[in-house]
């Protein structure tokens, strides 16, 4: 598995990175001077200005060590750009996110202390960080030190964008806005689809008595929609296409059981139920429960609408300690489904004109992939002639982080 999260708005972020004229390998003394000031203020031997691209990290300036372009698996700054707040890790070896990191683990250089601030362009997108490293642990920096580090980060951006004398005009990225609104708008309708389908069948069977399972699905979907709307309002930014996680310690079993309680009619009008199988006793996990539930409901709805009659949701821990969640059905994918398109940048699961009103393998799965990658995990769909299995993998550190929260 990868060891780093991917921003929800990664495609738009990369467009902003590539559009900055001053963001090239060519260096000037001003960036070295900023790095020198940074390491002195934080009392560290190493400081650098990182630039995070699609698969790699490189450096606009480095002082105190020689560093070449490296894969994002070796990057601390990839975590720093996930929010607008500084990232401070007093001892990297004691943080579950980094204890197995090649820069930290035995055999590497033995990095221990990290402090960095995200570098935010005038477009609102974050392209990298200004940070320090040390080979020994540190106490947390003072508020005064961090305030100076933030100001130095703003100086880096000003120098890159030419302020003064030629400021970069802030532009609206209409592509990212359209993509963000399309994806989120679709998934806001997913719980409503469940609600509408349940109520529709309840109405059709009202004379024969109410179906308690369908009524329960409708109520829970309505409740989830209310919470989801509040989460999106609080943790999203349509101007940059960003969606942030509202992480907390929760019980994964509750989310899976909630998914298994859905009882809905499939495309043929017959009721579909979901079986929950538990292959591992998993301790509490540190995730955004609303977003993981959103992903699970999208997978369940796809299986109900287009899968076989037997649907199972399960969890397990793989050999590396990662959490694996699967939604499996005994049906085959439709020929129009562009499965490979789920993994291509700028593509929302294939052509929109291939979709029907039932959703298919539509926008829900690309959004599921983005939500899982935002958690630092991986998503894939495995299809055979006899079954379809959608798999969410979450990194092992999300289990270990519970101990620190």
From TrEMBL:
Species lineage: Bacteria, Pseudomonadati, Pseudomonadota, Alphaproteobacteria, Rhodobacterales
Identify the species of origin.
Pacificibacter marinus
List the InterPro entries hit by this protein, alphabetically.
Answer: GAF (IPR003018), GAF-like_dom_sf (IPR029016), HATPase_C_sf (IPR036890), HATPase_dom (IPR003594), His_kinase_dom (IPR005467), HisK_dim/P_dom (IPR003661), HisK_dim/P_sf (IPR036097), Sig_transdc_His_kin-like_C (IPR004358)
Q: Mind telling me what this protein is named?
A: histidine kinase
Q: What class of enzyme is it?
A: transferase
> What domain of life does the native source organism fall in?
Bacteria
Enzyme Commission number(s) of this protein:
2.7.13.3
Q: Give all residue intervals belonging to the Histidine kinase domain.
A: 183-398
Is Phosphoprotein one of the keywords?
A: yes
- Asked whether the keyword DNA-binding is assigned, the reply is no
SUPFAM superfamilies cross-referenced by the UniProt entry: ATPase domain of HSP90 chaperone/DNA topoisomerase II/histidine kinase, GAF domain-like, Homodimeric domain of signal transducing histidine kinase
Name the UniProt key words of this record, in alphabetical order: Phosphoprotein, Transferase
Q: Which Pfam families match?
A: GAF, HATPase_c, HisKA
Q: Which reaction does it catalyse?
A: ATP + protein L-histidine = ADP + protein N-phospho-L-histidine
Picking any one GO molecular function of the record gives:
phosphorelay sensor kinase activity
Q: Write down the PROSITE patterns for this protein, in alphabetical order.
A: HIS_KIN (PS50109)
| Annotated PANTHER family | GAF DOMAIN-CONTAINING PROTEIN (PTHR43102:SF2), SLR1143 PROTEIN (PTHR43102)
